[in-house]
Each structure stands twice: as C-alpha cells, then as structure tokens.
C-alpha cells in the first residue's frame, strides 16, 4: 500500500511537471509533495518498527510456552538459522522491509531540498 501511494505521488508530480499543469507554482507544489512523501515514509517506518516489537513480544511468550513442551520447536528452528547472527542463514524481515521507507524518505527529502535550493 505504501509503495503504491508513494510511487503514485511521484508519478503525479512528474506528470504535472511534464505537462505543465501547475505553471508558476512548481516550487510550492514540489515542497508540499516532498513533505507529504517524507511524512508517509516516516509513518511507514514507524509501523514496521511497531510490528517488529509486537512480534518480539509474541515470540518471547511462545518461548515460555515451549519450555513446557516435549520438543522445543522454535528453539530448534533458531538453531538451524544460527541464532540469526549470520545474514547468510537469516535476514530479519523487518530489517529488509525498512529499506524501502528509508529510500523513499531520502527521495522525497531530495525533492524538498532541490526545490528549496531552486528558489535562490
């Protein structure tokens, strides 16, 4: 959803600039869209972090329950993955997922900075 929203925002800006739909107010529009894109990227990043924290709590609870079981499923799974210490065996999904909001953040920050510098 966020990728679609942010990409659509960039396509809209590119089309408006290309076809000169907003003539004379490009700087204001670009700064506004840049700030909107930055805000959406930050909220996306915060949501991913929140889900990471929620999952950590769930797995702590599951590991406590697992101590009462005959076979430790999650502990064994973690053994196969090398305790998550090597990216060769395991990449945390929440770490991989945070790359896109960070990239969009810098992209929209660049739009704001270059639009602002263009006014001088």
Can I get a quick summary?
With 120 residues, the chain is mainly alpha-helical.
The portion of residues assigned to helices is: over 70%
Low-confidence stretches: none
- Give me the count of strands: 0
Q: Please work out how many helical segments DSSP would assign.
A: 5
Principal-axis shape equals: rod-shaped
Mean pLDDT: 88
* Rg estimate, integer Å: 21 Å
Note the run of SSEs as H and E: HHHHH
Q: Class by helix and strand content? A: mainly alpha
Q: What percentage of amino acids are in beta strands?
A: under 5%
> What is the end-to-end distance?
36 Å
**Main sheet summary:** none
Describe the structure.
This protein has 120 residues and is mainly alpha-helical. The protein has helices at 2-18, 26-66, 73-80, 93-97, 99-118. The longest helix has 41 residues, at 26-66. It is rod-shaped and about 70 Å long. The chain starts with a helix and ends with a helix. The model has no long low-confidence stretch (mean pLDDT 88).
């Amino acid at each position: 959803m966020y990728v679609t929203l942010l990409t659509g925002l960039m396509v809209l800006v590119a089309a408006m600039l290309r076809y000169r739909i907003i003539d004379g107010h490009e700087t204001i529009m670009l700064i506004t869209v840049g700030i909107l894109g930055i805000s959406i990227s930050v909220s996306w990043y915060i949501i991913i972090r929140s889900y990471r924290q929620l999952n950590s709590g769930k797995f702590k609870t599951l590991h406590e329950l697992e101590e009462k079981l005959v076979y430790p499923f999650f502990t064994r799974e973690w053994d196969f993955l090398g305790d998550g210490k090597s990216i060769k065996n395991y990449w945390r999904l929440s770490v991989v997922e945070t790359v896109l909001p960070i990239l969009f953040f810098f992209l929209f920050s660049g739009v704001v900075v270059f639009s602002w510098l263009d006014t001088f």
